[in-house]
Amino acid sequence: MDDSTKQIVGFELMQVSQASSSIAMEPLCFKKALEEILNEGIDVKVVTTDRHPSIRKIMREEYPNIIHQFDPWHVAKGFKKKLIAASKRRDCSDLAPWVRSVSNHMWWSCCTSKGDEKELLRRWMSLQHHITGVHRWEENGTEYKCFHQDLSAQEQRTKRWLKVNSPSFQALKSMMMDTRLLKDLQQMTLFKHTGQLEVFHNALLKSGTSNNSSWPSKN
Ligand SMILES: [Zn+2]
Question: Where does the record place the Transposase IS204/IS1001/IS1096/IS1165 DDE domain (predicted)?
């Protein structure tokens, strides 16, 4: 799907017999579709996919000149799931009231960093201060502060800030600083999401169940 027009510009359907396994099918199909678009002479600048390792490998090794981005929605959803699981641990129940804000914060960090990887990480990591009730801090001699407006004394008093030494904070910190996550976040700076494409897929699946002959055919 072309991001600016939301038009479907390529479509590949593959039989499992054409690949060695159903897992091998996805990268094969992806490559075929991308090649067809490139062969049309279309100048592809950015490709957004999920974080499937084999797709990452193809993009890294075979298309180094195309920017590869991930959909922030998928990543934020995955992170939220992990947070919910952690908040169910008896010693981490303090995390529960924060689940939604943390997931929103990831979303916000991606959509406001305007393509700047460092800025995205800085915004994301500012959470470790904010969530403990600290809104101004220093890092390598530079003073930083949260982007929100100053909180009232009452807000500051009543918010359920996490204590730095609490298991909840430690659990959150290790999840948010996870090297793989930090790496993925750097491929989310352009804030490309694929929600519209899922609408297309769902429509295809529906027409597929009601009437198989309406599937696009490739032979
Ligand atoms: Zn703050």
Answer: 40-173
